[in-house]
Amino acid sequence: MTRTAQRKQVNIHIQDLCEDKARAGDAGYAIAYALLELADAQQKTAIAITRLGLNDAATPMGAIEMLSLETKRIAEALNAISEKFPEE
After folding, report:
1. When comparing pLDDT for 75 and 59, which is higher?
2. Burial of 34 (0-12, 13-18, 19+ CB in 10 A)
3. For site-directed labelling of 84, which of 4, 25, 69, 74 has its Cα 20 to 30 A away?
4. 4 CB-near residues (< 8 Å, 6+ apart)
């Protein structure tokens, strides 16, 4: 197994652990999980923008669609954080 594949497996394990504990009600893990989701969405957004700029996507509209999906994931993650910590 390559080092990149090992890193990917570790990241998936960490994200799964944070998700499980967050869903169990641990606020600290909820924040960690949301941040991991945001980081993942940001990375995918950067890839989508690169593909759009390089015309590397199957179609330009495909790149825009990917960008909109990642923007939606970011919004959902931010919403999850705001629901966990409502304004006082």
Report:
1. 75
2. buried
3. 69
4. none
Tell me the DSSP string of the chain: --HHHHHHHHHHHHHHHHHHHHHTT-HHHHHHHHHHHHHHHHHHHHHHHHHHHHT-SSSHHHHHHHHHHHHHHHHHHHHHHHHHS---
Beta-carbon contacts of 10 under 8 Å, excluding residues fewer than 6 positions away, are none
Amino acid making up residue 46? A
Q: Provide the token pair at 55.
A: 């015309």
